[in-house]
Structure formats: structure tokens, C-alpha cells
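dumping this here so i dont lose it
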């Protein structure tokens, strides 16, 4: 359910400075180019200043550097971080969805499954035997939760997600639609000319407040465990292989792939389509740029890019050198051609 807030109330909520009438009504949030008269928009970077004169928004969040702009909405709220302020405003404008507590009649509940407190189980969900589920968990339609899985409090498992046998989820874990957690990994041995799969009998554990994106896969360990630390957020379409260990508060973007038995420290950022080879160690606070190919260990605190991935500053210097090299090559070709004509 959505609400309407006055601009003065919004300014107080985010601790910002209000410029303009405090009674301007805000009913929604939209981008500069799509906002209407009842919407709040935001301007956080200089690259978007050109959109401000044409926006139809009723109010705008700006940083202090844009406080004195004379174009755009007359009502503006000055804050240090507009994006962080938007989180507070969005929560105030929109009530969270209230789940329908209870178990849908088409759901299948295995023997010995139990939960504490309220639970919402959607249509055609399947909960295996001896499953333990904490309070206020939401399990969407067509979800499968395997035997002996353990879910903490306030977990949300969206439609068609799979929590395989024996997986352990901490409190507040979110699995978005189609995510697969704890499925067997990809490992084979050559036996008599055939690729024979290695059994995956290890564990898969996700810490508190972990989020797994839509259609992302997290394989269980082959013998040991696949572990994702508390507060880590993983985007859609990511592959996390068997026995990978990911630290706390990491951010891993779409289409990244992490091969087996790689260990990732705390507060690491892995950008989209990066690929990490197996049996590597990535140090705390490392940054891996988009489409990087990581084939060696990464020290803590460094930023790497390219393929093979190496120090980002070295990659930029190499790119700059190549740009400078092109006219030099052209000059050499002209000199060679002239020399050929005179010889």
C-alpha cells in the first residue's frame, strides 16, 4: 500500500535541507526523465544535470554541489547521499507486502517437517522430511525444500527456487525466483573412457542476511562445504561452484562465475561477467572489474581488471600506451614506404 508524504516530512526523515514549499505532496519516486508532478526524483551526478530543466518531477533530491541550481523543480531536498536517502523514502512511501500466513492446500509437507511461529507456504510448494523452518518465513509457489534443510527466521524463498537436501540458511536469507542452492557441483573422473560424476555429499551453508539472485546457482560441497558469509549479496545468473567459500558483505554481480574451491575474503566486489578459476584465494576488500579473467590469487585491497586479470592501473597504462602506439606505427609505415620508393 502506498502513502503520500509532504516534502517537509521527507526532508525531516532523511535529515536534509528543504528548499521550497514544505506542503508539496510526494506520492512516488521516479527517474528524472520519467517523473511526474507528484513524484520525487534525484540528482546525484553531474552527468545527469542536463535532464534537470526538462523533468516534470514535483521535487528533487540533490547533493550540496547542486544546491544552487536555478533550473528544475522548485522543491528540492539537499542531502549528502541521495541514493541512501531514497531507501528511507521508499520505505516510508510503501508499506511492505503483508504475506498471507498459512499453508496453501496444494502444498506438500513431508513427515517431521516443523516450523516455529507464523509461516506462509505458497501453492504447490514441496517441503521435505525433517525440515526445520524458523518464524515468519515466506515460501513461494512451486518452491522445493529438500529433506533435512534448515531455514532460520524471516527467510524469503521466492517462486520456483530450490533449497536442496541438508542446506542451512541463516536468518533473513532471500532466495529470488529460480535460485538453486545446494545442488550437486560439476566434477567428473575418467573411468574406462567415460566421464563419471564425483558424488557431492558436502554441505552448503548461507549466513544471515545473504541474498541470492534469480536463477543463480550455488553448488554444495563435494566433501567439504560451500559457505557464503553473512550479509553477502549475489546478483542474478551467477555460478558459485562446489567448495567455494565467500566471506561477509561481498557483492557479486550478474553472470560472474566462481570455480570450485576458491576462497573469497570479506567485503570483496566482483563485477559482472568476471570469471574466477578454481583453487584461488581473493583477499579482503579486493575489487574485480567486469569481464575480468582471474587465474591467480588476488591480494587484499587491490583492484584488478582485464584478461588475464592484473592491477587495474597497469591495465589502464597499457591501454593508453596502445593508443599512443597507433600513430607511431602509421609514421613508421610511411617512412618504410618512402624508403622503398627511393631504394
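and the seq i came up w/
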Amino acid at each position: 500500500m502506498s502513502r503520500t508524504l509532504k516534502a517537509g516530512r521527507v526532508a525531516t526523515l532523511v535529515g536534509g535541507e528543504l528548499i521550497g514549499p514544505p506542503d508539496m505532496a510526494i506520492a512516488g519516486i521516479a527517474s528524472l526523465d520519467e517523473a511526474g508532478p507528484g513524484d520525487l526524483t534525484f540528482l546525484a551526478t553531474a552527468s545527469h544535470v542536463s535532464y534537470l530543466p526538462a523533468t516534470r518531477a514535483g521535487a528533487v533530491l540533490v547533493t550540496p554541489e547542486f544546491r544552487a541550481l536555478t533550473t528544475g523543480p522548485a522543491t528540492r531536498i539537499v542531502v549528502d547521499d541521495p541514493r541512501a536517502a531514497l531507501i528511507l523514502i521508499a520505505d516510508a512511501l510503501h508499506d511492505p507486502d503483508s504475506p498471507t500466513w498459512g499453508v496453501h492446500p496444494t502444498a506438500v509437507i513431508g513427515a517431521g517437517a516443523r516450523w516455529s511461529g507464523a509461516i506462509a507456504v505458497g501453492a504447490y510448494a514441496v517441503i521435505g522430511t525433517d525440515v526445520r523452518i524458523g518464524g515468519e518465513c515466506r515460501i513461494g509457489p512451486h518452491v522445493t525444500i529438500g529433506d533435512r534443510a534448515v531455514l532460520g527466521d524471516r527467510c524469503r524463498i521466492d517462486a520456483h527456487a530450490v533449497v536442496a537436501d541438508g542446506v542451512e540458511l541463516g536468518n533473513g536469507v532471500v532466495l529470488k525466483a529460480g535460485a538453486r542452492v545446494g545442488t550437486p557441483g560439476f566434477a567428473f573422473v575418467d573411468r574406462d573412457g567415460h566421464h563419471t560424476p564425483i558424488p557431492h555429499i558436502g554441505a552448503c551453508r548461507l549466513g544471515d542476511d545473504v541474498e541470492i539472485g534469480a536463477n543463480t546457482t550455488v553448488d554444495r560441497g563435494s566433501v567439504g562445504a560451500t559457505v557464503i558469509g553473512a550479509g553477502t549479496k549475489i546478483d542474478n545468473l551467477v555460478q558459485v561452484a562446489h567448495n567455494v567459500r565467500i566471506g561477509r558483505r561481498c557483492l557479486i554481480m550478474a553472470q560472474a562465475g566462481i570455480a570450485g574451491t576458491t576462497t573469497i575474503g570479506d567485503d570483496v566486489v566482483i563485477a559482472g561477467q568476471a570469471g574466477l578459476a578454481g583453487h584461488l584465494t581473493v583477499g579482503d576488500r579486493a575489487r574485480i572489474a567486469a569481464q575480468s579473467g582471474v587465474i591467480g590469487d588476488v591480494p587484499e585491497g587491490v583492484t584488478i581488471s582485464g584478461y588475464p586479470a592484473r592491477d587495474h592501473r597497469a591495465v589502464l597504462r597499457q591501454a593508453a600506451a596502445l593508443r599512443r602506439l597507433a600513430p607511431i606505427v602509421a609514421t613508421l609505415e610511411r617512412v618504410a614506404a618512402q624508403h622503398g620508393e627511393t631504394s
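Residues 270 and 302 are 12 Å apart (CA to CA).
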